[in-house]
Design brief:
alpha/beta; Rossmann fold; 7-stranded mixed sheet; binds S-adenosylmethionine
């Protein structure tokens, strides 16, 4: 699928969607894992959700905080009917509600606020079925997460929290995690 055609996005214009190699990676992983229920944190305008829905027969719940993005995501995902549900809500509040309801997912694609991944992690673990996958994008945050030395104040909290996220997921014996140097860094963790 040509993203500029599908979403009316001008080529070469910066938009915060997964870039080509990340998209191919996500598509292949979803195709291989065949998840039935998928949770996405950070819909933006629904591009990655459309890739997930094209790669499997499952259904996606995607969470987006900004109303204007959520409206566009709903429009762009209309063709998938009731396989796509867009929640216009803060991700943490949506995650806690899903957890309280005892919902379970086979695949979680984490692509929302980078500084919150660490806070979300224990809750997302509770939302995963055994054998489920947690894929997180932008874990190296423009390379700053791997950079030695001081980090400018503006990015410090995000970088510190992403380091905590990476360390927790690598040290969690319930997950088997692989880190990929693709794009801005991707982690894939399989729950035992
Ligand atoms: C990187 S973009 C998502 C791109 C999308 N997954 C794709 O590849 O097509 C991140 C999105 O997360 C949303 N976001 C940021 N903070 C959020 C929060 N606290 N709760 C829910 N969504 C949030 C942003 O508005 C933005 O649309």
């Amino acid at each position: 699928m040509e993203k500029s055609e599908f979403f009316g996005i001008e080529k070469d214009k910066y938009v915060p969607i997964l870039k080509d190699e990340g998209i191919a990676f996500l598509f292949d992983l979803v195709k291989k894992e065949k998840p039935k229920k998928i949770l996405e944190i950070g819909a933006y305008i629904g591009y990655s959700a459309s890739v997930i829905l094209s790669a499997c027969e499952g259904s996606v719940v995607t969470v987006e905080k900004l109303p204007e993005n959520a409206v566009l995501a709903k429009q762009n995902l209309k063709e998938f009917g009731n396989r796509a549900q867009v929640l216009n809500e803060d991700a943490y509040s949506a995650i806690l509600k899903l957890e309280e309801k005892g919902e379970k997912f086979d695949f979680v694609f984490l692509d929302g606020p980078k500084g919150q991944y660490f806070k979300y992690l224990p809750h997302l673990k509770n939302l995963l079925n055994s054998g489920g996958i947690l894929m997180a994008d932008n874990i190296y945050f423009h390379g700053l997460v791997k950079k030695e030395g001081p980090i400018i104040h503006k990015h410090r909290t995000i970088v510190v929290n992403l380091r905590k996220f990476i360390s927790s997921i690598l040290n969690d014996k319930d997950f088997t995690t692989t880190l990929y140097n693709l794009g801005d860094g991707i982690s894939v963790s399989k729950l035992k």
